[in-house]
Amino acid sequence: LISKRSYHPKVIEHYTNPRNVGSLDKKSKDVGTGIVGAPACGDVIKLQIQVDDKTGIIENVKFKTFGCGSAIASSSYMTELVHGMSIDDAAKIKNTEIAKELSLPPVKLHCSMLAEDAIKAAIKDYKTKRNSTVLH
Ligand code: FES
Ligand code: FES
Known about the structure:
about 140 residues, 5 helices
């Protein structure tokens, strides 16, 4: 029997030493913010990206997560993945990739889903901002 509380060492490592914790200026034109919550448990991830307008490359990324160890580890790993990536590639990242890297058990799959939702929301926010800038 696997306990829900038996975390994989990779989860514990990210939880203990999370990468890219913090905030970016929400009002900045080149920053996209994604805030998503998991209906299953009420946990919340805020993930922010700063994008180079010309190349579409994510130059900076920060997160804050109010949630379980797996949600924190998933966010932390997501920030490592997307740093230096184009927004188009980042939008294609699947939660299964994260779940596999962190060896998340089935009951914790929604934690990695939260990280996927957060990056997608951040990219969408950035694109919305950029489009409105172009139009006006
Ligand atoms: Fe308690 Fe997610 S249910 S932290
Ligand atoms: Fe809900 Fe992890 S238990 S995000």
